[in-house]
């Protein structure tokens, strides 16, 4: 497990990621000590005891947290900077991870967190992303933006499968970017709202077999839900652009395909 994004526990000291209590075995970290003991018949969740819980609530999918560290200025490649942190598949494991990594507000400029379904790399070139795009919103007033809360809300919406309807199969992952003048949060999708050539008009997850109008409506629904999670005002639009258009735009900003 990578040790790239350590954080604080209850405002105290830095904790290496390899000591995160993501298994209900009572192990509290480096010294191997454990906390309070409970009877086997007593159900303890992570909300009662974050280190000695014996009940886990499974998620519908496995999720992997990734971290992009800032470049050193020595010709680092994207693959050098992108680090896989940990994979989890329960509510308890999520909180174990979240409570032991640095808050977004404390990350260095040019850092990113990516939370993607297991098996999907947070890269445009990934086979499951290459035909897709992303919804995004840029927060320019960094000093007054509750970025830690907003990023948490988006992650919870993703792992709780509330960004789309069951069977849509569009959401690949979510990402937050820390830049000098802004924070940006995005949701990556599998398609860009068009049908896939050679397929019929049946409703199949991920866009295969959907007609263009159906695909567009699903993406617009995700965008609207994204906007609600970010608690944006009606006049504050979120924008959707395709990964291929973003790649072609280079350093310039890709033209939005949809706005909500």
UniProtKB/TrEMBL annotation:
Pfam families hit by this protein:
IF4E
* MF terms in GO: RNA 7-methylguanosine cap binding; translation initiation factor activity
Protein origin, superkingdom: Eukaryota
| A biological process from GO | regulation of translation
**In UniProt terms, what function does this protein have?**
Recognizes and binds the 7-methylguanosine-containing mRNA cap during an early step in the initiation of protein synthesis and facilitates ribosome binding by inducing the unwinding of the mRNAs secondary structures.
The record's similarity note reads: Belongs to the eukaryotic initiation factor 4E family.
Give the record's subunit note. Answer: eIF4F is a multi-subunit complex, the composition of which varies with external and internal environmental conditions. It is composed of at least eIF4A, eIF4E and eIF4G. eIF4E is also known to interact with other partners.
This chain belongs to the protein called Eukaryotic translation initiation factor 4E
| Organism this protein belongs to | Gomphillus americanus
